[in-house]
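Marked as duplicate of an earlier ticket. Keeping the data here for the record.
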Amino acid sequence: MSVGIEIGTDDTGQSVHVNIEELLATRLLVQGNSGSGKSHLLRRLLEESAHLVQQIVIDPEGDFATLADAYNHVVIDAGDYNEPEIATMGTRIREHRASIILNLEALELEAQMTCAAAFLNAMFDAPRDHWYPALVVVDEAQMFAPAVAGDVPDAVRRASLGAMTNLMCRGRKRGLAGAIATQRLAKLVKNVAAEASNFLMGRTFLDIDMARAADLLGMERRQAERIRDLERGCFLGLGPAISRRPISMKIGPTKTSTRMGTHSLLPMPEAEPENLRTMLFAEMDIDPVQAQHQPEPQPIAADELIRRIASPKPASETASAPDDVAESDPVDIEATIVAVLREMLADPNSAFQADALLYQDFSVRCRMQQLAKVPLELAEFRRRFALAKGGILDPHEPRWQDLLQAAAQLPEDMAAPFLQIARAAMEGSPCPDDEALGRAYGTRSPGRIRRLVEYMEKQGAVVVRADFGGKRSIGIPQLGLSTEAE
């Protein structure tokens, strides 16, 4: 299932889409000088995909905290917590699939790098059962993966660089998809930038950055001048999630904005010079109690913030009435699960996709059916999808209980081919061929299927018989049944 969001429009006014499923597998690099519209682009990407995928934003300037006003993001003000607490939150975020903004605004550069490294490493080291798909957006990535040593200690730089390298180079298998933005490619370490397969290049002026951007976009050097002429908010895009050929686009509007707003001209004050002088040099020993200012918000205790991550704002607060009805009716939820699994099995490629991508597809389909939240966690989905590939869409039916008990003695990944064989035995049908068993097992290798059947026979789960004509039948001792010869 292709899941696309509209990111903007091209030169002809046609919509330009980003395939989120493909983006999760191939990562994204955004480059543009200050004022080119990088943050606006990232905000548009985050807003449009907020309902599709878990989001983690590493925000060094506090620009994205306002997303929490319109979406279910949890803002973590890093200055209020120590390193172990930040690492704990990173682990809990993966477990509970909470979308968060890590606000580093209150920290100095060295502390920002240390905090981001601890947070990213904790997410990277999460248990395998928590490897859910997540979009990890890092703004000002050159701060966390600098190409040259700066004023920070070498140990801090190595830790931050190692965390960013893990995110971009090894994060895909753990469900982490990096989307990084930088002002200058020359400031970003090359092995981090090189792992991205999708590129969005905004306005830039230095020759070295234009040349690198043109190379990444597959453009000739003489075409690099085009990057210098881009307007604010316009980008050149390329990549499997965007377009197979370089495409120019203007990023669409956003629903939220930064707290600072845009930098536009304001009328100058009309006060007389003498009045201005009076205001500037007035008595300065004002009683602090009398000074009018907004009180500083009290920091949230780490335990309380972790509790919020584990129990995010209920979807019913922001969902429409049909969502509430769907979530409160278990019969409808189970029927939806069965319908969605049936739709997924209709796609012949689904048998060979990774669990993380399948779960992302399942999540999107459930939301399209107006469920307020995904009804299955990854581990339970993996089991249900394996049963569905074996022909059992509803495991609660009494007629399947003996069959499921027989399958319990085998590893989980072998359940689907075993169930196909067992169902054929129950129905008196011919034995499934190697191609059918391969689809259930997720392989196109006949050799792996032969070894699979041999393993099941050694475990006592099946008994294989072959006649002189080469026809095969497989018996299930625990059920006392056998398939027809095929």
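See parent ticket for discussion. The CA atoms of residues 214 and 224 lie 5 Å apart.
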